[in-house]
Amino acid sequence: MRRIAFLWVGLAAACIALGAAAAFETRATKLQAIKTVGIVSAIGEEMSLTQAGLTALSNAAQSVSISAWGLDELIVQQATKLLSGRFRVQPVNYRRAAFAAIRDSAVAPVNLLRSDPFKELVRSDVTPQGLNAYIVITRARSKLGNGRNVEGVGLAEYRTLLADYGLIHALYEVRVIDGKTFDVIEKRAAAPLDNTGTVRIAGPSGSVDEPFEGSASSERLRAAIADLIIRSLPLTLGDMHLIDSP
User: Fold this and answer.
1) What are the CA-CA distances from residue 45 to residues 41, 138, 162, 206, 209 (Å)?
2) Residue 245 belongs to a domain
3) Partners of 49 in the beta sheet?
4) I need a labelling partner for 7 at 20 to 30 A (CA). Which of 17, 22, 91, 135 fits?
């Protein structure tokens, strides 16, 4: 009986491995067949201001408009430059607010029973239709310190009994959506650029000395957020096998 049990365990493991290999092959085949793409970006219209830690003064995150920064335009421009070596990138029209309104993250556990929330939105709101695929870049979410969620572009102040730490973040995820079936071919959240900071989150971030100084009017802050995006985007697209890894 024990031998039979081991055989069943081995068979199950082999089936799982074969299934994973088949899924990878299917994904790779679909990516290889893509010739034309459109890029949708909806992460950069607002910035969150978050306080967390043992001595945080406020439990409610605030937000300010940063639409004047043009971060989504920057993302489309950078992604177009990176992807043009392999794909024919065509401009697309879409309602940015509709994509930004959806709160869903690849960082959170995946609910396999729920359809991806961006699938129907790409079908109904993006023009022109008929491209091989659409690259959709939206906000991602991560935990900070004592369990507070941070999302998208933001400034966070993490307080302890001994010190305060300032953090900027640009958390986003990238989907490749099939232009015919609207199924998600690939989905990945941008990874941290490094893990050397005192306070760490699951995505592109960096330390700052005075996190709330100047906020949305600060050109230095805008440049720092833009730098996180510019440095992380080629790494993320490379991890997704959309471009050669840098």
Assistant:
1) 10, 11, 34, 20, 24
2) no
3) 62, 155
4) 22
CB 134 within 8 A of CB 37: yes
Same-domain status, 108 and 6: no
Q: Say if residue 128 is preceded by a cis peptide, omega within 30 of 0.
A: yes
Query: How far apart are the two ends of the chain, measured CA to CA in Å?
Result: 52
26 lies in the same domain as 52: no
The answer to pTM > 0.70 is: yes
Q: Which two tokens stand for residue 244?
A: 């050669």
What's the CATH number where 81 sits? 3.40.50
Overall domain count for the chain: 2
Is residue 244 included in any domain, yes or no? no
pLDDT, tens only, 119-171: 999 999 999 999 999 999 999 998 876 567 889 999 888 776 666 778 899 99
* CA–CA separation, 140 and 119 (whole Å): 17
Q: What angle do CA 166, 172, 177 make, to 5 degrees?
A: 180
| Assigned domain for 246 exists | no
CB 149 within 8 A of CB 143: yes
Pair (200, 82) in one structural domain = yes
